[in-house]
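Suppose you are handed only two things: the residues of a chain and a line of SMILES describing fe (ii) ion. What would the bound structure be? This form records exactly that question and the answer produced for it, so the two can be stored side by side and reused later without any lookup.

QUESTION INPUTS
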Amino acid sequence: MLYRDSATKAQKLYYEMILKSGFPVKGLKPEDLEVVDFGLSQGELDSFKIVGLGIYVLVNAAECGKILCFLPNQYMPEHRHQSVIVMPKGSEFRKGFLDLKKIVKDFRGLEEYGEDAVYLVPESEKIPAPKEGILIPGKQEYFHTIKGAGSMFVPGEPTANPTYKIPKDQRPYTTAQHEVFLEPGVGFHLADNTPHSVVAGPEGLVVLEFSLTSRDPLDIFTNPNIDRITRIEERPK
Ligand SMILES: [Fe+2]
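ANSWER OUTPUT
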């Protein structure tokens, strides 16, 4: 939950970053920016500055393009985009599949299929989808930095001394610790089902993201306390 005044301030900060990046977005307004607190901010901008993300969606159809903005030293927690199979309401759970509602906090279904559908995640990508299911392929992403710098963490040999450090209380939830350094002009492709997290450098970070269709509620976070959907609330008087 993020208080509205904190969200408004964060939108302004991200808006300034996009302007400074030089990437043109005609008619861009601060309120067009999505702020994501991952359910960890307790309302406040100070904690949001440590873990949070700003997003401007350029397009989200079969193809998706976003501008991702990170404030100085801000961290986007580790998550992955796995294939999901949507089964008709009342379908039985079956061996080899996990119930997405049990691994994603507050998952309330996708708008297009509803809350009553059964959402399955295969334990291995080799397990074929049941015939009556609709397969949503795991999202592949490509990050291309346009301003600032950051450290992305992906599976592989852990980097002993990464350029930028993950906030201490988030480290227990970061399993992939191989650093990929993000800097302007450099891109990185992420396969589906790959755990990844990003921490920005001291000047913040602006990244273009290209991917398959984005369905945020399907993101699987390593930290089970994370809620991907940011709830904006009025600050009590
Ligand atoms: Fe991602």
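WHAT STANDS OUT: The first helix runs from residue 4 to 21. Residues 79, 81, 141, 196 surround fe (ii) ion (CB under 6 Å).
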